Amino acid sequence: MSETRVVCTRCGGVNRLPPARPAEGAKCGKCGARLFADHPDDVDGANLDRQIAKGTIPVLVDVWAPWCGPCRMMTPAFEAASQRFGPRVRAVKLNSETEQAAAARLTIRSIPTMILFLGGREIGRSSGAMTTGQIVEWVSARLPAAAA
Length: 148
Ligand SMILES: [Zn+2]
Hints:
The protein has 148 residues and is α/β, with parallel strands linked by helices. It has 4 helices and 7 strands. The strands form 2 sheets. It has a 5-stranded mixed β-sheet with strand order 3-5-4-6-7, with helices on both faces.
């Protein structure tokens, strides 16, 4: 697979990234938003579905809620991990309080829960707060060598 497709977290547009160009600074062709921001964006359920179904890179979602202390503690670790992955992993956040239907579809039983998707299907799930190093290790261990 030579072509990378990345779904915009803001407008849901599907962007094709040529393999030759660095993806870090890439912008959405539809709305102009940076595709890889410095911190993982919150997405709604519909956008998350598009990320999983239309994107070609692994999708890592952190399911959280504003009232959840461990979730807030994990936020900086998740941000740092996502910066380390850069454009190799699509890191996003799902607020289970405002996106209850999406959280229910993912059968979230406790938060924080991280789920990793690749090729349209779930390849890993972990509940409980993690450090940056633990997140990076957990994700890398689950990805095929080519993707990690
Ligand atoms: Zn966009």
